[in-house]
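If it is no trouble, can you show me the amino acids of a protein and the tokens describing how it folds?
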Amino acid sequence: MCKFTHYLLSLPIIAAVLLLAGCSSTRHVPNGSYLLDKVDIEIEGDDEVTVSELDNYLKQVPNHKVLGFWKLQLGTYNLSGKDSTKWYNRWVRRMGQPPAIYSQAQTDASIRQLRQALVNRGYLEAQVEADTLLFPDKKKIEVTYKVTTGEPRRISSIAYEIPDTIIERIVLEDSALFTLQPGNRFDRDMLDTERALITQRLRNHGYYSFTKEYITFYADTSEYSKEVDLTLTVRPPLVMKSGKLTADSTAKHQQFYINKIYFITNGSTPGGAMTETTVADTVSYKDVEVIYGKDRYINPGALRQKCFLIPGQLYRAADVDRTYEALSRLGILKTINIELVPVADIDGKRWLDAYILLSRNKKQSVTFDVEGTNSEGDLGFGLGATYQHRNLAKGSQLLTARLRMNYESLSGKFNGLINDRYTEYAGEVGITFPKFEFPFASQRLRERLNVSTEFALSFNYQERPEYTRIIAGAAWKYKWVNRSNTRRHYFDLVDINYVYLPESTNDFLDQIAPDNPLLRYSYEDHFIMSLGYRYYNTNKRIPSSIVRTYKLQPTVYTIRTSVETAGNLLYAISSLSNVKRRNGAYRVFGINYSQYVKAEVDYSITRNINNRHSLAYHVGAGIGVPYGNSTVLPFEKRFYAGGANGVRGWGVRTLGPGSYDSRNSVTDFINQCGDIRLDMSLEYRAKLFWVLEAGAFVDAGNIWTIHNYENQPGGMFRFDTFWKQIALAYGLGIRFDFTYFLLRLDLGLKAHNPAKGQEHWPIIHPNWHRDATFHFAVGYPF
């Protein structure tokens, strides 16, 4: 049956391969034209120049190949007929890719682009030629670009000609931080980067009107030498003479100061806000003016606190960026635009009026979700609702309230049980302040710390046949996110969870866990009060709603770290208060509280080979240590392995710990957790056609326990054996990339299984039923 299923699943793939392979690749190539079948770049000279870099400068490339040999998109396009008025042909062509028809003009343009790219990198004597190989009978052509780089020019010295002494002092005071140094290649991209850095430095010292076009480089080169003497010059500004902008060597760049600050809450332009639209109210608050339209939806204080521009102070571009970043965290604001307008000189100084244009977001929103379940014939449903108010007290406070109810009817006998159903009621309410909130904190400190504060309460009531459980929680958290959302800090000052079982069957714990402390702890009353910090950092640029395209990043990385500790404050109070221990542990509210420390780190990096192929790698590790008042981590804080984002040859919570054999117990989902985790993944990703992507992956990892628990034999971490207990998996996946979200279907197969009593190397003796696991998920695994 397993083999039959395997063949059945393979038939559509085999059929598609044969169908697309049977179509002529030149079916839609006009007579007299040729399909550009292959393009190669051959490089002779400097090893620093690679083919992958030069590929980006080709004006014409062949049709995309899946796995390096299969032109799937072209084959899909060729399934269409020649009548473009039929809907089927148009639909198939949209999913595919039209044939790349060879163009001599594009080839000549590629030669020019390649040579210019090399010249820009310092290879001034670079030569590029193109050879073609024609196959008239097949209507195909191959092109080979032969690149001779020659020796690069290098910078031997850098001099500076800056007539303005103030600008000279600003530029040279941090010369050690310059990216351009003697010995570098004469790379024009590096020169442009240096211009941008100097410009940014000057704009942070008041030079509002300064642009990088005022910075020029003069290169002294010799035909017989590979060295370049470079001179950086800062030109004086253009001045208006006789109605024309002309150069004046005596003119100097001017520093600007902030004059007046206007907040315009209806999003109009500065002039329009004053003359063309109805101004309902103008409020002077401290040193800013707030101009309201008909809707006075936000308090002046909330706006002033997020503004880092100060009247009378020198203009700094960094202050503008900080203001953007701070205002973007006010959820009531939909758009933010800061316009700086020069005004007449005052006291011999140049001044800027700042107009901060705002538009309002929706104040309130309500969302609903419904789901249905069917577990072996027992029907159930779930209902959920979320309410948000983004401007609770006109200070952009965010109120979030969530309610959820799940119900499932059960069939069978219920003798000795207390319920005949699964029922769950959950609620959560939280309020987020767009500023730092702490008792006795000064106003200056609240303004300096550009963070938001969240207070939340949660409640969960569960009814099951064996027990009734209540989980209550409270949290006090801080969050800081930069403007581009690439760097985030989370600090959980207090996070409280209280688990209470008011009712259960008389022998419930004795039946499920007569001598299993892990399982008993999961269903006994317990209390957790923790403190934690999380950090997230990535260089991934996400396109905004306005600009949806951006240059492909060659390398994208993401770092996630967290550390959490619990019970220390309670333990100190208990110790100082001389509270008596019960069964070796202190209690609060009559129940044991947890004490532990837990840390995690995850690092992933994606190398984009080109815009269709990428290679992603991930490594992660974590450790949790119970101590003091606890001998075991709380079940919900322990690690687990397997699943769609772990070692994909195993289902979630079915791997480990260590060499533990999960076939020994009916409560394996409780036993298959640990205190240490290690996982690694390597994944190749390729875009196919339409929204389809393919993936091939290799995963490795496992979990372990710190102590030798009786109910988890073989699960303890040991330095001399842990590497033998690392599980391996491999597989293939299909992904559907709908731009705003990605659906993923992965098939994982076991390669090495460390569990005792099981086949250790299933890759040698595969069994479909035993070794295959399907995963359906949203988003990439890392």
Q: What stands out?
A: Residues 2-148 form a domain with the Ubiquitin-like (UB roll) fold (CATH 3.10.20.310). The first strand starts at residue 35 and ends at 44.
